[in-house]
Amino acid sequence: MLLVDDDPLITGGMGSHLEKKGYAVTAANSGEEALEWLDKSIFDLVITALVMGPTNGIDVLKRAKEVSPEIMVIILTEFGDLSSAIDALRFDADDYLLKPCEPEEMYFRVSRCLEKSEFKRKIRSFEQTLPVCSVCKKIRDDTGRERGTGEWLSIESYMRRRAKVDMTSTYCPDCYKRALEKIDREFLQ
User: Fold this and answer.
1) Same domain, 115 and 143
2) Angle in degrees, CA 166, 122, 152, rounded to 5
3) What does pTM read for this prediction?
4) Residue 39, CB half-sphere, CA atoms under 13 Å: how many?
5) b/e 31-60 (16+ beta carbons within 10 angstroms → b)
6) Do 86 and 8 belong together in one domain?
7) Which end of the chain offers a freer environment for a tag, N or C, measured as fewer CB atoms within 10 Å?
8) 3-state per-residue secondary structure call for 62-76
């Protein structure tokens, strides 16, 4: 994650706490430095102070979302007013916190943002990689093939062969046995 604040006590203290929780933290001591980092590295999360000069947190937020709309951004501010919160939300901030904040509150917000980011990433991945027939519900498996030329598999076969997921929790024992037999028949074809 990229941690941005013109106060080195904030970047040092908060960065140290987040690193102790297992996160990789890159600190930037100005908005300008943050923009440089965003142009040369990939981040899942940016935590930025709102008030910095001349490049402020909204500028950092805008650049982060330009680089990748998937980057999560938390805005930190000492001056919590409705106008700054509205601006942050208008430019797609993912969270907004008042400083100083308790380390556990920061950790909770960071965890929540990263979970949301991972969920979005998974959904996008499934949308891009899992063509599903809207009639028979089979999934085209393009693994190792040119996109659009893969074999059509039942959901059960796909989940077992590609995702390595056993469907035991969604079947009664008799249906599970029949599903396995069907998967074996499909595999032999």
Assistant:
1) no
2) 55
3) 0.65
4) 6
5) bebbbebbeeeebbbbbbbbebeebbbbbb
6) yes
7) C
8) HHHHHHCCCCEEEEE
